[in-house]
Write a structure and sequence with these properties.
branched-chain amino acid biosynthesis; Alpha-Beta Plaits; 9 strands; four-stranded antiparallel β-sheet
C-alpha cells in the first residue's frame, strides 16, 4: 500500500489520536490528489467518500502527465478537522494514490472555476444582464434575440454572486466545471 505523503510541516495525526483536540467546527478544504491514470481509480476515490458519508462539494479530474500516466483529482470537501484528517489518511491508503495534499492548510493557493450561464430575457433585462456581465468580466459566448450564454471564470464565490444577480434577470441554466486549484509559490505537488 502507498503511504500518505504529506508536505513538510503538515500534521500526520490520526483521527483517533487522543492528543489531538477534537472540534465540531465544519471547515471547507481543497485536496489535490495525484493518482495513477488507470480505469477504476476515480471510482475508488468517490467510493471512499460515498461509503463513509463524506460530502464532495466539487470534483475535477484530468491527466497531468501523459508519459507518467498520472492524473490530478481536485476535491473540495467539508467536515470537522478530524473528518478531514480521516479523509486524507484514507485517500493515502488507496494503492493508486501517489500523494494527498491539503491546499487549505499547506499555505496560500489559487482556486478557479469556469461556468456557463444561460440567461433569457428581453428589453431592459438584456441590457442589465450585459452590464452585470461586464462588471464581472463574463464573456458572451452565444447570443440569440432572446438569450445569452455567459462564460465566467473565477472563485466559486464570484460565480455564486454572478448567478445570484442573474436569477431575477432570467437565469435558466448553469453548468460549472468544479474547482481547479494550485498552491502558490515554487513548490510542485507531483
Amino acid at each position: 500500500m502507498s503511504p500518505l505523503k504529506l508536505k513538510k510541516g503538515a500534521s500526520s495525526h490520526s483521527a483517533y489520536d487522543l492528543k489531538t483536540p477534537f472540534s465540531d467546527t465544519v471547515e471547507r478544504h481543497t485536496l489535490a490528489v495525484i493518482v495513477e491514470n488507470e480505469p477504476g481509480v476515480l471510482a475508488r476515490v468517490i467510493g471512499l467518500f460515498a461509503g463513509r458519508g463524506y460530502n464532495i462539494e466539487s470534483l475535477t479530474v484530468a491527466e497531468i502527465d501523459h508519459t507518467g500516466h498520472l492524473s490530478r483529482i481536485t476535491i473540495v470537501t467539508s467536515g470537522t478537522p478530524q473528518i478531514i484528517q480521516q479523509i486524507k489518511s484514507q485517500l493515502g491508503r488507496i494503492i493508486t494514490v501517489h500523494s494527498v495534499n491539503d491546499l487549505t492548510v499547506e499555505g496560500p493557493s489559487v482556486e478557479r472555476e469556469l461556468a456557463l450561464l444561460k440567461v433569457t430575457g428581453k428589453g431592459d433585462q438584456r441590457i442589465e444582464a450585459i452590464r452585470l456581465a461586464d462588471i464581472f468580466r463574463a464573456s458572451v459566448v452565444d447570443s440569440t434575440l432572446e438569450s445569452f450564454v455567459f462564460e465566467i471564470t473565477g472563485t466559486p464565490e464570484k460565480i455564486d454572486a454572478f448567478a445570484d444577480l442573474m436569477r431575477p434577470l432570467g437565469l435558466q441554466e448553469v453548468a460549472r466545471t468544479g474547482v481547479a486549484a494550485l498552491s502558490r509559490g515554487p513548490d510542485a505537488h507531483v
